[in-house]
Amino acid sequence: MSTWLIKGVAPYGGDPVDLLVADGVIAEGSAAGAQVLDAAGLVALPGLVDLHTHLREPGREDAETVQTGSRAAALGGYTAVHAMANTDPVADTAGVVEQVWRLGREAGLVDVRPVGAVTVGLRGERLAELGAMADSAARVRVFSDDGMAVHDPQLMRRALEYVKAFGGVVAQHAEEPRLTEGAQMNEGVVAARLGLTGWPAAAEEAMIARDVLLAAHVGSRLHVCHVSTAGSVDILRWAKAKGTRVTAEVTPHHLLLTDDLAATYDPVYKVNPPLRTAQDVAALRAGLADGTIDAIATDHAPHALEDKETEWGAARPGMLGLETALSVAVLAMRETGLLDWRGLAERMSAAPARIGGLPAPGLVVGAPASLTLVDPAARWTPDPAASASRSRNTPYAGRELPARVVATFLRGEPTVLDGKATR
Ligand code: DOR
């Protein structure tokens, strides 16, 4: 195990200190023999934790693998990601979640935490083997049919009841499917002008309202994926005020981009839930700042060229997110004065770790040295061709972003140094 002295780094943007990393933890004592990393001007944050990553393995290794997605995650400052279950085969058995977990260990760049499907084959007909996945080597705690909603209220109720036994959580992709049939983008004035079928805000809000009532009724934990509308924030605020055990995430793209980008007809902007209006973006930012929304989650959704570089109607929804999430969060939340570094760390590391059932990350002596070093003064322009992801569908190509990850450590070992992955 290597020993590192990270010199002159500012934890959470505060006063600079020297951080000693030894035996995989943040240590005290002698730095003799340590490799020195000059971190003057850099900010240290606990390693970021993503609640919502599509790694596409098994099944679509042409779009992403556990290895390439892990590298993209480390480059984005992440030390743990939750790998969504909509793979092929679906991660609905102990066998598949263990396979993904093992591939993550072999890649060794981030902790890959498989998400288990709620229903067999994501078909929404009967519950998957939730207990077997929880008891497996992968120790699954988050269950989601993401990409699809668990539509049947009785099944949703049963899933919420079931996960209570092992402290799990059901992460719902909130979309009332009858209201989004044929939908291509947000329902509103832009969709009307473009003549595209709209995805109404109510399709998301109706499902969240139902689910917070179910979660309150059975006293279980609900997590809401990729919240995208102002009305959803209102419902979550109401549910939390009543004491319902609900948490929620918002993606970087929903904090920054709006539905008028659909007018370009560039499918890179096609995503589910769709980009919404400026009023929704403002409400999401306010909800994230006041704690109504707990976490930022990437919904990193790599797609092969042939699935994305086609006409808008035929293109798959989804955007890359891992390598740009922190920069977009800084742009949307820090440069607007809504959150400081500590606030960002809470929403990109501590809260997602809590929701996912991982130990609390921290920059204190004795804590695992899983951390990221960020250059807050850097500005950079994402180049899809340079992405570590196997896919190219970033909406930020050619767009200047603030702040850049310089180094990432996973339990004391560097996974990124000088902005480059170490493996
Ligand atoms: O845009 C999306 N892409 N939203 C989802 O819910 C699923 C995801 C995917 O798997 O590509």
From TrEMBL:
Pfam families: DHOase. It is an enzyme of class 3 (hydrolase). Zn(2+) 1 binds at residues 52, 54, 146, 299. The active site is at residue 299. InterPro entries: DHOase, DHOase/Allantoinase_Hydrolase, DHOase_cat, Dihydroorotase_CS, Metal-dep_hydrolase_composite, Metal_Hydrolase. Residues 43-230 form the Dihydroorotase catalytic domain. GO terms for cellular component: cytoplasm. GO terms for molecular function: allantoinase activity; dihydroorotase activity; zinc ion binding. Its cofactor is Zn(2+). Its EC number is 3.5.2.3. Catalyzes the reversible cyclization of carbamoyl aspartate to dihydroorotate. Belongs to the metallo-dependent hydrolases superfamily. DHOase family. Class I DHOase subfamily. This is Dihydroorotase. The gene is pyrC.
